[in-house]
Amino acid sequence: MAKSKNRRSGNTPVSELIRNLRSLRVLLVHPKDREAEDLLEHLNRIGCQVHTQWPPPKEIQSNIDVVFLALRQVVEDNITFSWNADEPPAVLIAIVDYENPIIVEKVLQMKAQAVIGLPLRPFGVLANVLLSVTNHKREKRLLAYNERLRSKLKAKNDIDKAKSILIKAHGISEDRAYEFIREQAMNKRTTIESIASSIINASDLLQLNLTKEIDIK
Amino acid sequence: MTINKTKDPVKIGLLFSTTGVASAMETSMMKASLFAVEEINKNGGIDGCELQTVSHDPCSMSSKYRDFAEQLIIEDKVNIILGCYMSSSRKAVLSVVERQNALLMYPAQYEGFEFSKNIIYTGAAPNQNSRQLGDYLLRYVGKRFYMVGSDYIWPWEADRVMSEMLASRSGIVVGERYLKLEAPRKVFDTLVQDIKKQSPDVIFCNFVGESITHFYQAYADAGLDPKSMPIASLTTSETDIQAMGTAAGVGHYTAATYFQSVDNPVNKKIVERYQSKYGTDELTNMCWDSAYFQVHILANAIMNAESDNINILRQSLLGSELNAPQGRVRIDPDNHHTYVWPRVGRVKEDGQFEILFEPTHSVKPDPYLANHDPNGWPTDTIMKAV
User: What dotted CATH number matches A19-123?
Assistant: First the structure.
């Protein structure tokens, strides 16, 4: 659990994200109206680099950090907005003026990281942007970590399986089996995981003939 | 109301504490406001309509600022309130003016990171005082800083900005202490002893209210020398120097948008008029200047808009300009803050500031600037030695 300091100190540096707030690139996807103008003005006041676009672009450019989206218009006017909610290209902040289940459901479906309510109140926009960018980064980090764990786990399973094939086939110790796989990987300049999966594949092919001696030298 | 048809007076509310911890500064702001109102009425009011004030004393308590702001709008029927000094009081009034769609004109330097359609900010944002003071101190005074101040958001944020400037220019913070607004004198003696031990090049000081007097007096009583270890502040003004006794203030630095010693004909004329009314003991200062000029800006805007309805008035206020005592100022339509003139001064024997540096032209407010890295400074902040 994060522990917050009782006394704020002026000498405690703030995070890079806050310091570099002005390098954030924001795309405001909203029809041109008074609310969009107010939000645009406030984002400029904060100092972000803002562009506006309507109707929504086919694809979000990779240099965009944050997308503000007029959600009701997308829902009501049946406007196409392609957004991969599971692998979002940027942070998504929904601009909403209804809080009914249909609109809220859409917010959830699109996995928006934050919501800005209308009528616009400038207070809170800054904090919402920073919070959602931080959450987005953390989510990406966690997903990448998750992926690494998944492949590590699969590798470990494969190595275990390959070891047990070798132990069975040659009556060698577990340590020796591992050592053998490692040597093979070094000689062939490949990973332990790929040798392990070769052994498993080979063994599968020879499944019917397991009793026969395999020439592993 | 629409002015000029009925010649009814235009009523504005004043919320300055004449009692409590902030009273020294806020009384000065109050007098500045009333003085400006009197000038306007002497010159025929706003198109023949008298400008009337309704005042309440919030006693330096933020809950009273909120209550009186509500009372001013609902019972006294004003659309515009001028007042507040500390951030806590501004925040209290902010919630009221936004809900009631009224206007607050706020004449004090503060920590930035705020914008409301219902507030006009006429004091300095951090890019209009901290930056200039930091630049001066690091260039000419020293690199080892001891940070002290009252224990609330404005001094913390002022220190954060200063610390960042230090970090990017190989300065260091050797100590940092915040004291409660009501801290008694003896606590300041203890603080000064610690500062003496650390022996910094500069004491960056953002006490407000009576704490200013306590701190400078404790410093003087400890026999410290401003030549080797000066105090530098964003808040200490002529009025505070007078309250602490001039001797305790001599040699210390302040950065502000205005000093009474600003050398221009507008300032000289206004100070002379002010002192001929209240006496030469009545000093002017940075918040006095903002409190004064914002009344004139407001009166001009009401005259142009022919209304004190804030939806109409706002357009007339934004972008408006005035020859204020500090120099020509302008309300920035982008962020409702003000183009002002940041200066660095040092207290002389007579309690007035010798102005060491001032800008070549007014500086645009940038209330949402988080990164005060001097490498990224725009050229309009270039200061010239006076």
Answer: 3.40.50.2300
